[in-house]
UniProtKB/TrEMBL annotation:
Belongs to the peptidase M20 family. This is Zn-dependent hydrolase. It comes from Manganibacter manganicus. Binds 2 Zn(2+) ions per subunit. One of its GO terms (molecular function) is hydrolase activity, acting on carbon-nitrogen (but not peptide) bonds, in linear amidines. The lineage of its organism: Bacteria, Pseudomonadati, Pseudomonadota, Alphaproteobacteria, Hyphomicrobiales. PANTHER family: ALLANTOATE AMIDOHYDROLASE, ALLANTOATE DEIMINASE-RELATED.
Length: 414
């Protein structure tokens, strides 16, 4: 029987086939996926994952945020489980691998342990966290945030999508409101395997990202109030132009991020003009600024500067301005023991590797608040993600899953 450190390998074809099978659910329009949280396609994806867990004899627990926990028993039922998780929900124009790779690599570890007839001391639990993306309901990593005690269940249930539907109602509607108290589960350790979603590993020609930290984030939702007026007959000096204020704030955010290099990013991904008519100056403009940095002081300093500058711009243009932080987490340091285990696994397996800070947020960032946690990353083509053209190679997928396999088995003990 192979032991960690020897050539424990997952079944690369089976992992790849599972990813491709899941990708058929909630297809996008350009080869990726649109399987947004709590939609009918999310429900379908959950059912497929449930069927695979059933086939592997896993017992499924579901909590009051709809997160799925598929458990493989260990030899010591009292031992806290080792969790391996990520998410099956996608962006509206998402790729096939963001999140899915991590959940299905966890399932592949279970399948490979069964093939090898290996029983670990600690149980192993594969998790599918609800609403990691935050695309439909802000903030991102919502379920893992409730699990870590950062958000209340009421806060989460009250979150509304752009059509005014609530998280709580939609969770009930798709039939995935579980009965477990959120956060009642205790973890021996938490691992998450994810595509990098950035260009570093591919550019450095490394197969494995040994993730030491995750950068912190603020999502600042601005509501600017102007005056609806005719775009043709309203003289320029009579306009109360919320759209112009948004443009100036957007430009200022770019400047603040660029003057906080290295290690800061800032931008806007979502914006809503009302009434959004071609020949009406907007009465209101709502948009979310996304700023991130691994450096706590930089992160909080950028937030303060952006809010001050936005207020100044609004006064200058006589536009109303309010801002609400709709998403936040501090920079996270992953567990050094687990990080070393990932690095050692990459070395044992002969995979090229480098330390990396996660640019994107992950459920691991919240899990790290309640258990020793870390991540494994693989490269992605051109560093592209949150785009239907997101792509990885089967070899990349398998290499990271092998490393995850070793680190998980080492932690779950044979
Ligand atoms: O926004 C993020 O970093 C993640 O993709 N939810
Ligand atoms: Mn993700
Ligand atoms: Mn994502
Ligand atoms: Mn903070």
């Amino acid at each position: 029987m192979a032991a960690p450190g020897e050539n424990l390998r997952i079944n690369a074809d089976r992992l790849w086939d599972s990813i491709m099978e899941m990708a058929k659910i909630g297809p996008g329009v350009a080869g990726g996926n649109n399987r947004q949280t709590l939609t009918d396609s999310d429900k379908e994806g959950r059912a497929l994952f449930q069927s695979w867990c059933d086939a592997s004899g896993l017992s499924m627990g579901v909590d009051k945020m709809g997160t799925m926990f598929a458990r493989r028993e260990g030899t010591d039922p009292e031992a806290l489980p080792v969790y391996v998780g990520s998410h099956l929900d996608t962006q509206p124009t998402g790729g096939k691998y963001d999140g899915v790779l991590g959940v299905l690599a966890g399932l592949e570890i279970v399948r490979s342990l069964d093939d090898l007839g290996i029983k670990t001391k600690h149980p192993i639990v594969v998790a599918n966290w609800t609403n990691e993306e935050g695309a439909r309901f802000a903030p991102a990593m919502l379920a893992s945030g409730v699990f870590a005690g950062v958000h209340t269940l009421d806060f989460a249930y009250a979150r509304k999508d752009m059509d005014g539907k609530s998280f709580g109602d939609e969770l009930k509607r798709i039939g995935w409101l579980g009965d477990e108290e959120v956060g009642a589960r205790k973890m021996h350790a938490y691992f998450e395997y994810h595509i990098e979603q950035g260009p570093i590993l591919e550019a450095e020609n490394k197969q494995i990202g040994v993730v030491t930290h995750g950068q912190g984030l603020w999502w600042l939702e601005f509501t600017l109030t102007g005056k609806e007026a005719h775009t043709g007959s309203t003289p320029m000096n009579m306009r109360v132009n919320a759209g112009l204020a948004m443009a100036r704030i957007f430009e200022m955010v770019q400047h603040v991020a660029m003057t906080n290099q290295p290690g800061a990013v800032g931008g806007v991904g979502q914006m809503k003009f009302s009434p959004n008519s071609r020949n009406v100056l907007p009465g209101t403009v709502v948009f979310t600024v996304d700023i991130r940095s691994p450096d706590q002081d930089k992160l909080d300093g950028m937030r303060a500067t952006i809010e001050e500058e936005a207020a100044r711009i609004a006064v200058e243009l006589d536009v109303g301005c309010s801002v609400e932080a709709v998403g936040h987490f501090d920079p996270v340091t992953f567990d050094p023991v687990l990080v070393d285990r990932v690095r050692k696994a990459a070395e044992d397996l002969g995979y090229s590797h480098m330390n990396i800070i996660s640019g994107a947020g992950h459920d691991a960032c919240w899990a790290a608040r309640v258990a020793p946690a870390t991540m494994v990353m693989c490269p992605c083509v051109d560093g592209l993600s949150h785009n239907e053209a997101e792509d990885i190679s089967k070899e990349w997928a398998a290499a990271g899953a092998d490393v995850l396999f070793h680190a998980v088995v080492e932690t779950a003990e044979i």
